């Protein structure tokens, strides 16, 4: 891997961690092994994950192309799972992604941003546009499926409510990182404002299937 590639990309969107952040000090050796593990998971998911393959296909149909060298495993300074930049592509944080299933959800999440960017010509500096894409990404990527499991024994309505609450929470955590967002309060406001229309827009999926 080139020195240039090892440098962390600046992202326009970032995907928050699932649990409490921790910032361990890593040796160069450990960093290299985390990146190669992440690359391995990435290869596997691009070949076998139905969601990832579906998204590649949908982006192609929308007139885009996901080049494999635009999906980069990197050591991230801030605790997060990944990010997306319309020019640089997708960042996967090798030091914060614990296993290939989380990588699958994170990659699917970033691919929804990619799809939105290709199909809807998103203005990433517009807070409402950003919030909308984060809502869709959190809802459709499967990252809130754990929450769905959690509520399963409490009835169908609770499942739906748990999923929506998770999507809102995770979208706000991403939006708060936007340069135009003042604070968490502001992030939640913007997410609430666009939630209904963006949550109900499940394109390119027919429905939320996970
Ligand atoms: Zn995102």
TrEMBL record:
Record keywords, A-Z: Hydrolase, Membrane, Metal-binding, Metalloprotease, Mitochondrion, Mitochondrion inner membrane, Protease
GO cellular component: mitochondrial inner membrane
One Pfam family from the record: Peptidase_M76
The protein's name: Mitochondrial inner membrane protease ATP23
Function description: Has a dual role in the assembly of mitochondrial ATPase.
MF (Gene Ontology): metal ion binding; metalloendopeptidase activity
Protein EC: 3.4.24.-
Annotated membrane topology: Peripheral membrane protein
Keyword Iron-sulfur applies: no
């Amino acid at each position: 891997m080139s020195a240039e590639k090892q440098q962390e990309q600046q992202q326009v969107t970032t995907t928050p961690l699932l649990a409490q952040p921790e910032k361990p000090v890593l040796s160069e050796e450990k960093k290299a092994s985390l990146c190669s593990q992440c690359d391995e998971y990435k290869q596997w998911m691009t070949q076998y994950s139905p969601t990832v393959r579906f998204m590649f296909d949908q982006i192609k149909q929308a007139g885009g192309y996901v080049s494999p060298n635009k999906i980069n495993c990197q050591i991230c300074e801030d605790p997060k799972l990944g990010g997306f930049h319309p020019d640089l592509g997708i960042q996967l944080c090798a030091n914060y992604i614990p296993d290939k299933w989380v990588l699958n959800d994170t990659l699917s999440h970033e691919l929804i941003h990619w799809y939105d960017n290709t199909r809807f010509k998103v203005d990433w500096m517009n807070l409402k546009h950003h919030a909308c894409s984060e809502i869709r990404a959190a809802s459709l990527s499967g990252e809130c499926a754990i929450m769905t499991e959690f509520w399963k024994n409490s009835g169908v309505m609770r499942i739906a409510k748990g999923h929506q609450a998770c999507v809102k929470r995770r979208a706000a955590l991403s939006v708060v990182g936007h340069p135009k967002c003042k604070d968490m309060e502001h992030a939640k406001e913007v997410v609430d404002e666009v939630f209904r229309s963006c949550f109900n827009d499940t394109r390119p999926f027919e429905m939320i299937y996970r």
